[in-house]
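Customer escalation, tier 2.

The customer says the design service returned an amino acid string that "doesn't look like it belongs to this structure." They asked us to rerun it and document both sides in this ticket. The original structure tokens are below, unchanged.
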């Protein structure tokens, strides 16, 4: 019984992590990990600045639907 609970907990943790990655909720954490690997010479954006930057990047592209 204990082993099944452990597997279920591991599955749910992986599922939750995957869901956060898929919907973009974990984007800031990924950004921080990326900047940490590049060294201290880069300026790290705050969480609010990061999301504004992401929104600007997403909606500043030309829309070619019509």
């Amino acid at each position: 019984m204990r082993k099944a609970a452990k597997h279920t907990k591991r599955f749910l943790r992986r599922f939750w992590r995957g869901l956060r990655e898929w919907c973009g909720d974990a984007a800031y954490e990924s950004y921080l990990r990326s900047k940490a690997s590049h060294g201290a010479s880069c300026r790290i954006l705050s969480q609010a600045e990061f999301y504004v930057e992401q929104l600007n990047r997403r909606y500043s592209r030309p829309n070619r639907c019509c």
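Tier 2 assessment: The sequence is consistent with the input. The radius of gyration is 18 Å. Residues 2-59 form one domain. Sent an explanation to the customer and offered a walkthrough call.
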